[in-house]
Amino acid sequence: MSAVARRAAAHRGPAPARFEGAGAESESRYRQLVELSPDMILVHWQGEILYANPAAARLLAVPSVDDLVGRRIVEYLELLEGSLADQLADIYRRRPVQRALIDGFRRWDGEELELEVSSSPVSWNGTPAQQTLLRNVTRRRRDEQELRRRQEQLDLAVSGSRGGMWDIELDPENPMGGPLRTYISPQLKRLVGYEPDELPDDFAAWRSHVVLADLPRFNAVVGELLAGLRDEHELDYRHRGPDGRVRWLHTRGRLYRDEQGRPVRWIGIDWDITARQEAVEAVRRSEDKFTTLFRLSPAVLAVISLTDGELLEVNDGFLAHLGYHRGEVEGQTVGGLGLFENTEEWGRLAAETRRRGSFQDVEVRLRSRAGAPRVVRLSGERILLDRCECLIAAGHDISGQIAMEERLRHLAYFDPLTRLPNRAMCERHLTEALERNALSGRRVGVLFIDLDRFKMINDSLGHGAGDQLLAALAHRFSECLRPDDLLARFGGDEFVVVLEGLRDERDAAAVADRLLASLAEPVEIEDTAIHPSASVGVALCTPEAVASDLLRYADAAMYRAKGRGGAVFQLFDGRLDGEHMQRLHLENDLRRGLERGELELHYQPLVWLADGRTLGAEALVRWHHPERGLVLPGEFIPAAEECGLIGALGDWVLREATAQWSRWRVAGLVDESFRMSINLSARQLHDRRLVERIEEMLERYDLPAEQLQLEITENVLLQVPETCQALRDLGVRLALDDFGTGYASLAYLKELTVDMLKIDRSFIRDLVYDPTDLCLVRAIVALSRDLGLEVVAEGIETSQQAECVQEIGCLWGQGFLFDRPLTGRDFEQRRLLKAA
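The structure assignment produced for this chain is given below.
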């Protein structure tokens, strides 16, 4: 008897009685079923072992089954080592035991096993019993541990390549029925955004995250593998992670089969190829963009072979700008198409490309299909296409730009009305002429031409007529000059002639005579014969003179000619330059005087002749120059008109006069019969906001519109009748100043929408002694009375003149007889307070 048997016999005591009767047949059938089982089976009731199969004896290393049957399980377990016995005892106390694993079970012979224990209720000969099955899983567990170790090693190796592995065990009997076991490495789970415990080792779960659009391809590969159509696979597909991010995976795997060729195992590796796929997609998009841009770009684009000049591809811009159809171009050579106007140009560009790899911004002249030249700014770069060295050329058609630049250059240097060189071109030509003639010893002369009374023509007939006159005179002047002489429109009604190769002043004077003689014939403008005249200043260069000096000298001489009455020419001398500079200083001083408040209004009374009452005042501007003292309007008003200050000056007069009138009204010095008369310039009447500003001033000072009288010259009234009518609609009175001196005054009188005529002082001066003046004044007064107009006689200086105009029927008078223009304070003292 062995030591184990002796230990068991000493422990167990007498054997318990066995079950008899009907239960014997059931026991026999049960024993037949389990005798050959490789697993240990025990049947026990209330802790006593009722049955054990041979495998139990072998597993527990006891001599025979008899050493187990009849013993209590707990008593038997006490024979084992304490910790393991406690573990087994605990398992049996928690009945029914479904399944448990015992690590480190050591048999009596010393061998260590791993057991899988399960327990379930059975009926033993009609009595409830418990069946316990102990399976030796030592080898399987070791195989699994080895497999796990190898998988971990493979995972470690794969992880270095940004990949992860998977291992699927298939049922060879039913490979299409789903995996028996699936292993997805932690690295692969992390690769798609999961923590290892967040995604189960389940093939169906993994497939559920494949992007829907890629699922058909994915399923097709799986189906082909399991159907035996292939043993290896390689596939790119997209997988959606828990964060919704889609990753591109490249999977590669192999299917293993058993001896009968049935699938048993499928192993593979997945790599994250998102970056690569995105790069590929970026390249594809870039290529698509390039193709689209190449085709649709408005630039001229072409791919040309550097070997033979063949046009391999052109874009729509090429076809549009050069007028070709695609079939006429692609496959042709540059030379055969005659693309370059200069046949050598292509050779130079091709050589430059081979030598340097590129060229930039080269202007070339291409020939369109119709033969028209097109200027293209071309850049190119060498590229390699299918081992063929090519040039990709990009050009911009700048034909329109060059034409525009030419037009702009013409506009910059030529006058659009007369098509003559303008001031900039004149000054440039004059500078070059001085340089040329300095070497030859010849002299350069400048003729400065200014039309006389051109403003009156503009004001009377309109600017359109003035433009026609300028164009006609430009043609006449051109016919008076030599081919090498330059005629330029300097600005406004001013022309300049540059003469080269002069001997002395006589040569220049002869040209000036011819210019003035060309004005002898009238110019027909809109069925009106205009007799133009001009003042011409002549200046010849001195050794030290520059262009600006010579122009200034000629300008000064022209002003002297105009001062002589016009229609003549004047040679320049040194004194004229001083006068010219004095006029420039006057303009500058006037501009500063407006800013510094040096101007002042004086008021001349408007008198009711019947009783001598002052019923109005005309506002007249005076300038107190800080150095020259009082400057009269006759000197600075023309300067203001020439330098463009007349508008600002007129607005200032309008503001100051209405403010003074308001103060007199508030003080009770004037009543509703008092009129404030203010002169308006042509520039003011051309201002669209004039009526609005006058209305604002009347409202601001609460002044009656019908007592404001605006004095306008006849030619201005004819030029802007709409503005005059708007002023009358406002309620303002209009007075026609200097009546009788304008253009065809009586012929236009019926068209003038005015309330008063002011007879010019030239008719009043000799009224008492000259019957002609008396007759004219009598006719004007009679005509005005018939038209319902009031009349004022200007310039009354004697009582005889006052009596004469009163006898004729003129009711209003103005002149030194009644008072000179007075300051606002003096006007109050001498006219208003005295009348009160």
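Interim note for the steering committee: The mean pLDDT is 79. Residues 86 and 415 are 120 Å apart (CA to CA).
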